[in-house]
Design brief:
Elements (H helix, E strand, L loop, with lengths): L18 H10 L10 H17 L5 E6 L2 E7 L13 H12 L11 E7 L3 H10 L3 E6 L18 H6 L4 E4 L4 H24 L2
Parallel strand pairs: 3-4, 4-5
Antiparallel strand pairs: 1-2, 1-3
Helix pairs in contact: 1-2, 1-6, 2-6, 3-4
Length: 202
């Protein structure tokens, strides 16, 4: 058991743009569904990420599709309006979906698709595996993250979770590099202060 009480230091890149500038970039971007089939839901997810960041949470958002039709969109609520650290964007959306399906014991989860602006963390991926939502796509993946490095977060899951999710699609969205960079910058605007809030709770 570690007895170190010194506050850890996590260093993140300084964002190049603020939320207003990133929202303008998103508004100026013209979706190209023929070239990038996931541009539409990716834009929705990033827009929800900006909303989350402005509300004080980690700036991640997402949406749910049923047979390619958007049925819900929402954002992370982990830091705001108060700390509910299970309420990542993916968790919020899956809660909503499971509430909708509460009376259906065999809901054909393979017909649902979850989009998120950032690669899901291992906690959210475990939930995705349990939920059996058919496809999960994320706009941006940080291939240089301290935690994952060359591995995706899905590849880092224990073997049992990977077996549970073996029929599922979990991969990077087919959207433009421009959208991926906007998603990255949106996330960078939020992560420093959110991590500081978590560490101050010790």
């Amino acid at each position: 058991m570690c007895n170190n009480t010194e506050k850890p230091v996590l260093k993140f890149e300084t964002p190049k743009f603020n939320y207003d500038e990133l929202e303008q970039q998103l508004n100026n971007y013209e979706a190209n569904p023929e070239g990038y089939k996931h541009d539409g839901p990716s834009i929705i997810s990033v827009r929800q990420g900006i909303r989350a960041g402005r509300a004080g949470s980690v700036a991640v958002g997402g949406c749910l599709l049923h047979h390619d039709e958007v049925i819900a969109e929402n954002m992370s609520k982990a830091n705001s309006p108060y700390h509910r650290l299970d309420l990542h964007a993916e968790m919020v959306l899956l809660n909503e979906l499971e509430d909708r399906l509460c009376d259906n014991k065999t809901p054909r989860m393979r017909d649902y698709t979850l989009f998120t602006s950032q690669e899901p963390c291992p906690m959210c991926l475990a939930r995705i595996c349990f939920s059996q939502v058919g496809k999960t796509y994320y706009v941006y993946r940080d291939g240089n993250s301290i935690e994952a490095g060359a591995q995706t977060n899905y590849e880092r899951l224990p073997e049992g979770f990977q077996l549970l999710g073996s029929r599922l699609v979990v991969e990077e969205a087919d959207c433009s590099p421009k959208l991926k960079e906007i998603a990255r910058q949106v996330w960078l605007n939020s992560i420093d202060h959110c991590v500081d809030e978590w560490l101050e709770r010790y």
